[in-house]
Amino acid sequence: MLPAAARLTRSQDFGLVVRRGRRAGRPRLVVHALTPDVPTLETASKVGFVVSKAVGNSVVRHRVSRRLRHVVGARLADFPTGTSLVVRALPAAATATSAELAADFESAVRRLQR
């Protein structure tokens, strides 16, 4: 589970990251990342997840959310301080394994770091 300090919770924060951040799409997910231009006083990177009804019913959506939290939580410390991420699951994520989601996330992050 992600600590509370590492979660995006406000709608305005999600919107800011999606509008102003860089985006990398993969077959099962899209990652939006916003890195601060100047150093901030924030001590941790933050992440939020968007898993819409297009992914599936509530059981499927929560399964996808749990898998994504596990994948992203392990890598969150690797991002620069103050980075905000929004991970949006696409309908193909419903049938994906954790390994496939991890591979897509890693690929998206590598693309964003270029």
Automatic annotation (TrEMBL):
Keyword list, A-Z: Endonuclease, Hydrolase, Nuclease, RNA-binding, tRNA processing
Reaction catalysis annotation: Endonucleolytic cleavage of RNA, removing 5'-extranucleotides from tRNA precursor
Keyword tRNA processing (UniProt): yes
Pfam families: Ribonuclease_P (PF00825)
Keyword Electron transport: no
Enzyme Commission code(s) on record: 3.1.26.5
Enzyme class: hydrolase
InterPro entries: Ribosomal_Su5_D2-typ_SF (IPR020568), Ribsml_uS5_D2-typ_fold_subgr (IPR014721), RNase_P (IPR000100)
One Gene Ontology term, aspect cellular component: ribonuclease P complex
Domain of life: Bacteria
Annotated GO biological process: tRNA 5'-leader removal
GO MF annotation, one: 3'-tRNA processing endoribonuclease activity
Matching Gene3D superfamilies: 3.30.230.10
Subunit: Consists of a catalytic RNA component (M1 or rnpB) and a protein subunit.
Job description of the protein: RNaseP catalyzes the removal of the 5'-leader sequence from pre-tRNA to produce the mature 5'-terminus. It can also cleave other RNA substrates such as 4.5S RNA. The protein component plays an auxiliary but essential role in vivo by binding to the 5'-leader sequence and broadening the substrate specificity of the ribozyme.
PANTHER family: RIBONUCLEASE P PROTEIN COMPONENT (PTHR33992:SF1)
Family: Belongs to the RnpA family.
Name recorded for this polypeptide: Ribonuclease P protein component
